[in-house]
Amino acid sequence: MASNGNGEFTFANGNGTAAVANGNGTARNGLAKIQTQKKGNGMCHDDSTPPVKAQTIDELHSLQKKKSAPTTPIKGTQGGAFAITLSEVERQKQQLQSISASLASLTRETGPKVVRGDPAKQSETPKVSSHVSHHHHFTPTISVSDSALKFTHVLYNLSPAELYEQAIKYEKGSFITSTGALATLSGAKTGRSPRDKRVVKDDTTEDELWWGRGSPNIEMDEHTFMVNRERAVDYLNSLDKVFVNDQFLNWDPENRIKVRIVSARAYHSLFMHNMCIRPTPEELENFGTPDFTIYNAGQFPCNRYTHYMTSSTSIDLNLARREMVILGTMYAGEMKKGLFSVMHYLMPKRQILSLHSGCNMGKDGDVALFFGLSGTGKTTLSTDHNRYLIGDDEHCWTENGVSNIEGGCYAKCIDLSGEKEPDIWNAIKFGAVLENIVFDEHTREVDYSDKSVTENTRAAYPIEYIPNAKIPCVGPHPKNVILLACDAFGVLPPVSKLNLAQTMYHFISGYTALVAGTEDGIKEPTATFSACFGAAFIMLHPTKYAAMLADKMLKHGATGWLVNTGWSGGSYGSGKRIKLPYTRRIIDAIHDGSLLNAKYKKTEVFGLEIPTEVEGVPSEILDPVNTWSDKDAHNETLLKLAGLFKRNFETFTNYKIGKDNKLTEEILAAGPNF
Ligand SMILES: Nc1ncnc2c1ncn2[C@@H]1O[C@H](COP(=O)(O)OP(=O)(O)OP(=O)(O)O)[C@@H](O)[C@H]1O
Ligand SMILES: O=C([O-])CC(=O)C(=O)O
Ligand SMILES: [Ca+2]
Ligand SMILES: [Mn+2]
Predict the structure, then answer these.
(1) Residue 90: its pLDDT value, please?
(2) Which among 569, 586, 576, 562 has a CA at the least distance from the CA of 620?
(3) What residues are paired with 458 via a beta bridge?
């Protein structure tokens, strides 16, 4: 739109001149006049625009969509049209064979017949020639089942726009919000189900993994895994169509993992499109065989008569087969965190530390890690308008520095405000998946305060939706390691500086008051200890990760901090959560180095070094005792929490951390003293 100088606005046409009705029309007020003219044949035409280049409605619709051009030049051909077509066909065939193999039942001879494309589209109905036969030719025998006669339609790495259409057309509860995000419902499960996460115990994993008390790895045998796998694969093959995502994990090119996600819902496919690293068209063409495959048959329950099944939900990990099966939960976070578990196994084998942490970097290249359990502020605090975002939840620390495992962020949305968290707010646009939120039925405006479906409302968006994302998502060695705890007791200071032994003590303890809803069944904040701030995802004994962290922090001179993003002025119920702007000031002071050189005093019981002043934060809140009106209640609560820490740490007292016994003793002494 342009002004003509008289305060009038006109629409410019392609040539930059004001559009008028037609050759001889004048449009003084900017509106085109409809004119009819007599043509030579005496017929009356409205020919103000050239006629459409289609003879039929079908043809018109076929013009709307342009065939995607082959995205990369095919290698090894001299360019003749015939050669290109052949390679293209060959490549597609290999891809379909790979998918068919992924979906193969292990009790039948071959994989299903797979074909690309939406079964709803007539033009894509398979011809017999696209039948992938593997080694065997299809010969009907008595043992053939109906499932062998049908095609499994594969919707392969669809774009967000295509996935929106699939979701809206076929998945109840899918809507476009006023900002363009896709609103979805995850069904009965609105959080992860840690008590239903099982890992196959075989000769290798029996020795390698952490089993028993405190471990997240509930054992299952290989046979039971196969029963569940078969159940998932049969379910997926019985559908009209399945979604397949081929993507990557880890921005460190040397340690990139190829993952395939087979799922039944467009919601799941879009979620993983956002959360994993998106391959370029060229990378996708050369994808080959995945390193790990997820079968998400979440709509379908597991069979409770199956050995080990204690509910209708089961999330099963088989490291030897490099597969994960999901039955009985549609909560998409299971896929993200399931893959994180896999990384917690694969990476330490390569001397790489995997971390449940956010990560960002300052203009000068100073990197900070943000550890913390769910809801403590990893996403909120790593998304900082003044710093580059490397990632919000899952990272690796190698010899060379840090790398994000994921390609997207997964932010909590409850009470989200554009004012307090503008970057996250603005990322919730077209392409973002909004889980379990409530919106106005007409305006489609989201009410972020509404907990009708769940407290654990979430947004999943590609990391580049955050304007200052650092792409590729890698950075140098961390300078600060910030341990976040959301202390519902209200007795931990808003910030403490930790020595290495204290950092290890708190890292192994992994304390927080779990914020409602992320784990299925938890409705109110409760004190929780979760080793390495992520016991639900670690595969090896916590001391393995702790030793690596100590090594790396020492080697690279990183400083540890404990930041309480939880309560102040009393426990949950009487006190209040520390204001986000105060926490941000504290984090700023850590980043800019000013807090390192502040004046400190030591607290009772926990022996934490707390600053007496932080710019922009009222000094009286820095020592929690000042904020409690009932000092006796404060002291009692402090001792109560310290007791919980002590009891929790008992399980670790028999373990040596790293090579040095001295460090082990120091860590044991770094806990509360009373
Ligand atoms: N002082 C505070 N510091 C940090 N977050 C706060 C504070 N006060 C309130 N919050 C809220 O707490 C929540 C922190 O959630 P966030 O998404 O950052 O968790 P997370 O650590 O990334 O968890 P998860 O691993 O489950 O993704 C946000 O909703 C944020 O608005
Ligand atoms: O996995 C989820 O559902 C959310 C998350 O990030 C966590 O719990 O740490
Ligand atoms: Ca998060
Ligand atoms: Mn997380």
Answers:
(1) 87
(2) 569
(3) 412, 435
- The series of mean pLDDT values per 10 residues for the chain, 674 residues long, is 37 36 38 45 57 83 77 47 66 90 84 89 51 41 64 95 98 98 97 96 96 93 97 95 98 98 98 98 94 98 90 97 98 98 98 98 98 95 97 98 98 97 98 98 98 96 98 98 96 98 97 68 70 96 96 98 96 90 98 97 97 97 97 95 94 83 90 94
Return the sign of the alpha-carbon dihedral for residues 12, 16, 18, 19.
negative
Q: How many residues does the chain have?
A: 674
Asked if 623 is an active-site residue, the reply is no
pLDDT at position 84 is 54
- Domain spans in the chain, listed from the N-terminal domain onward: 188-363+370-407+468-477, 479-669
Residues in CB range of 543: below 8 A, 6 or more apart: 508, 652, 655, 656, 657
Q: Is 333 in the pocket of ligand 2 (CB under 6 A)?
A: yes
> In this structure, what are the phi and psi dihedrals at residue 354, rounded to the nearest 5 degrees?
-95, 140
Task: Give the sign of the dihedral formed by CA 441, CA 442, CA 444, CA 449.
Answer: negative
pLDDT of residue 135: 42
Please list the residues that pair with 323 across neighbouring strands: 293, 318
Alpha carbon of 336 to ligand 2 centroid (Å): 8
Residue 141 is a catalytic residue? no
Q: Can you tell me the distance from the alpha carbon of 501 to that of 285, in angstroms, rounded to the nearest whole number?
A: 48
- d(C-alpha 432, C-alpha 129), whole Å: 38
| Runs of H (alpha helix) within 178-239 | 203-208, 222-238
CA of 612 to the centre of ligand 1 (A): 25
Element (H, E) at 485: strand 478-485
Q: Is 607 left (phi over 0), alpha (psi -120 to 50) or beta?
A: left
520 part of the active site:
no
> Quick count: other Cβ atoms within 10 Å of Cβ 185?
18
Which value does ipTM take for this structure? 0.97
CATH number of 188-363+370-407+468-477: 3.40.449.10
Say whether 479-669 and 188-363+370-407+468-477 share the same fold. Answer: no
526 bridge partner residues = 514
Helices 500-509 and 661-669: crossing angle in degrees, nearest 10, is 70
Give the Cα separation of 546 and 532 in Å (integer).
7
To the query of whether residue 378 is one of the catalytic residues in this protein, the response is: yes
Residue 378: what pLDDT? 97
Q: Report the C-alpha gap between 457 and 275 in whole angstroms.
A: 16
For ligand 4, a single-atom ion, the residues with CB < 5 A are 393
Q: Out of 231, 260, 273, 337, which one is annotated catalytic?
A: 337
Other beta carbons less than 10 A from residue 206's beta carbon = 10
Site to substitute for ligand 2 among 378, 410, 528, most atoms within 8 A of C-beta:
410
Beta strands (DSSP E) in 56-146 are 113-116
Does residue 33 sit in helix, strand or coil? coil
Cβ of 374 closer than 6 Å to ligand 2, yes or no, is yes
Thinking of the domain 479-669, which architecture would CATH place it in? Alpha-Beta Complex (3.90)
Q: Tell me, what amino acid is at 446?
A: V
According to the model, what pLDDT value does residue 79 have? 45
Q: 481: which 2 tokens?
A: 């390691």
Report CA(374)–ligand 4 centroid distance (Å). 5
Nearest to 187 by CA among 267, 263, 302, 272: 267
Query: Is 337 an annotated catalytic residue?
Result: yes
